[in-house]
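Deliverable D2.4 — example input (structure tokens):
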């Protein structure tokens, strides 16, 4: 499956031997790690600094993945990431693992991150500065903010 969605961010993924399952495809759990790496790299690009996860006030609260085609050891994979919409207390994201040689989308991932106070363990609004950076990076129209 080829993609038609626009992604402003992409990071290469190194497939390792330890990522393979008995069917010689990348294990589903390893693909979760690929998406985590892509999400973290995306934040660092958008926020223009390394992420300190001890201080980050957003947490992953929902993940939904569709495994469309197996990823093999010699595939050239990138993780493409984008923000779909921004709400008061959540950010919805879409990611895909795509083979750069064929253009085939191997796996997609829809996720939701929520604002979170690490001291009180309570839900909090997404910072306005984050909303602004996401909106500018993605060129989101006003109707993409919930």
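Example output (designed residues):
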């Amino acid at each position: 499956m080829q993609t038609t969605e626009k992604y402003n961010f992409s990071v290469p993924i190194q497939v390792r031997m330890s990522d393979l399952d008995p069917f010689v495809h990348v294990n589903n759990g390893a693909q979760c790690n690929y998406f985590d790496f892509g999400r973290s790299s995306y934040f660092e690009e958008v926020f223009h600094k390394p992420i300190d996860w001890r201080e980050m006030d957003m947490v992953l609260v929902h993940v939904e993945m569709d495994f469309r085609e197996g990823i093999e050891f010699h595939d050239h994979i990138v993780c493409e990431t984008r923000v779909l919409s921004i709400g008061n207390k959540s950010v919805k994201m879409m990611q895909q693992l795509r083979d750069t040689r064929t253009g085939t989308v191997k796996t997609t991932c829809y996720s939701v991150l929520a604002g979170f106070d690490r001291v009180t363990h309570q839900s909090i609004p997404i910072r306005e500065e984050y909303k602004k950076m996401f909106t500018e990076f993605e060129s989101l129209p006003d109707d993409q903010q919930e």
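The longest helix spans residues 28-47.
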